[in-house]
User: Fold this.
Amino acid sequence: MENYVRTIRKAIGAEKIFVPGVRGIIVTQKEEILLQLRTDTSSWGLPAGSVELNETARQALIREIKEETNLDVISAEPMSLSCGPSQQCTYPNGDCIQCFALTFVIREWAGQPTPDMDEGSELKFFPLSDLPENLIAIHKETLEDYVRYDGNFIVL
Assistant:
């Protein structure tokens, strides 16, 4: 199946579109967060991606985490739903999106983190107190939500 967003882009070009997506906050027992250095922006970000047609959010999360980190999700807790003006971004190629993203906290996984070398060139665990400066803005907001997360689902 062809990528849903690519199909839309063929029809409308770079115009802003609404994209349903998922984000994974992969957390170690030391509360370190796995980030990937993106190849398109040279910025650090969470493993994330869009939900494809005929796919659930959970299926998309499992697929995106596997594709971008080579990790297998064992359990994932839904944490938040993010949407609105702060969730807009423009990619280096000019494509504009506004995310409607479901974020999951992943504390159990299997495997060794390995970057896919397509979307990400490096994977690294960071303590929340020492996140990189060049963090993608919408993911920085997601991590701020994680810091205040108390087990109650957050809707933004």
